[in-house]
Amino acid sequence: MLGIHPQSNVQPLNNLTYFGSERHGYLVPDHLLKPESIVYCVGAGEDISFDTELKMKFDSRVYIFDPSPYGINHYNEVKEYVNNRTPLTLDKTIAPYVYHIGPKQFAEIKFIAVGLWDKKDILKFYDPERENYSSHSAYLFTDSKSFIEAPVDRLSNLMKQLGHSHIDLLKIEIEGAEYKVIDTIVEDKLDIKAILVEFDEIYNTNDKGFHFRIKNSCDKLRKAGYILVHSTVALKRLFVKKDIYDQLKKSELNEK
User: Pfam family example for this protein (predicted)?
Assistant: First the structure.
């Protein structure tokens, strides 16, 4: 009734394929991506399995954004292992995942050490207060005494710098900053075909209002013409622009 259940307003697509590790993977619509597709993966942390698998599967133009030491160090670690053709395993005890991407395709992925926000700035990213949590946040953990400072920019500015008039798939896993970024997507009327977002406040919240903050953000996307296609219990969500959704739905019907 309140519209905050994980499955509220979901209009599913049947043809979705999972990419990435068990903890940091996402479902992507079949037939959405091609070699010329532009993919922005924002928030690397210590797992770029989803990003690399999209490159392997579709050979799309993949861009990874993360200004944090965790993200930069992990990207460089994967790069070293890949170039040495040595297997690198994530989550060795819980849900092992091995990177399989080759040196040529990995070299074609562009890493940009900048975070997303609503303007160009140098922002404080606070250290997580939980042990073994590998992400800083500009929105969460603000009671933390320690922080790093890192560059951020508005998504529309980064698209202009990179020469992109549209994005085919945007993944934002950015520890609470997704609210501001979604606002800029709507305000700037950006041409983004599909958006994957993890609402991190469900894991780290200081009050009971987070469900309604998440609902408000999702409602903004829906009013901007996006269809909520998939949602997990943990509120990892897939939104697809209505015209693209209609094409994918038509394709499903034609396959029957």
Answer: Methyltransf_21
